[in-house]
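Support reply, case 0932

Customer input (verbatim):
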Amino acid sequence: MNKFFFVFLCLLISCNADRKEKNQRKETSKGFIHYAEGFTVVYRDGVKEVEVKHPFQGATVPQKYLLVPRGVNVPDHDESTQVIRIPLTSIACTSTTHIPLLDYLGESDKLTGFTSMDYISSEKIRKRVDGGYVMELGMDKNINLEKLLVLKPDMLMGYMISSDMGQFKKIRELGVPVVINAEYLEKHPLGRAEWIKFMALFFNKEKQADSVFRVVEREYQSTKKLVHRASSQPSVLSGVLYGDAWFLPGGENYASRILKDAGCGYLWRDDPSTGYLQLSFEAVYEKAHNADLWIGVGTYESLQEIKNADLRYTRFKPFAKKSVYTYNARKGAKGGSEFMELGYLRPDIILKDLVKIAHPALLPEHRLYFHEKLQ
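Our regenerated output:
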């Protein structure tokens, strides 16, 4: 689907959604969120009560936010609830996955701070970076609090991998609200994509977010249906060694779900893990040496690089058959991975790539976007 047609469909769906907006604004997340399980929103008297249910893996206490329009009195709330004035006029972000959400909502110009500029691939945001409109803040616990205090964005969007709030607690004490985006915990590919609606809440762009998402959903589901025509299911190996351990997706992992939807026989699909497995080379070789495809090889850019890294890789059938694919075909101006940045929002493109790899006859016109066969 070309970019113009994608935008046209979004606008068309947005017009149809207008009729439902009034009712949606009086309801809870029901009817607005369909796949994402990590956040909820309740509209009450013009104020949005937002909850991130699981801010990190294993979390039992949610993060709560009260989104209050500018000029409106703040209603009573408990001390654990952060108040954020909307719509935002500026935002600082900590993950490249937040960048496309701003781009697709037409709010790219609101980004004023980011952790590390080199990771950004978005052309729109890179223009802002090159123009000096985005301040580099530093990564994780090294976020520069003095710079952030000077910048004073309306909000910082972060993510957590543990209960340690680290710099986020100090940032809140400076008067900058910190909102946790937990999109990475979603199991369903469309669940992650639906977090564009989370970002939209802070800009009053729910209708536009819903329009974008519905096109992504439509493309994903229509591609998935094509796979029913496939007469075979190629076996798939994924991952590479990091140190002594081979990291690959568990059977209930997000990546495993997309491979399944693409009609691939991922060899660890029966594993119950939602995270990543850490296996020995021997264990992987025993199960996957005769795999048909090897998809996802870290940062390796050629078969020679893979061979140089560990000669044992050459024993795998897909290496010998040159059926090895990277997902890092597209990189930004400074080397950032477009897959890592845009992939969460556009699982429909990932799915089309995988179907093209596994069942090329089903998508004769599709050209690989994120993926590329290594030579």
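We compared this against your earlier run and they match. Two observations from our side: Residues 3-24 form the longest helix (22 residues). Confidence is low (pLDDT under 50) at residues 17-26. Please reopen the case if you see a mismatch on your end.
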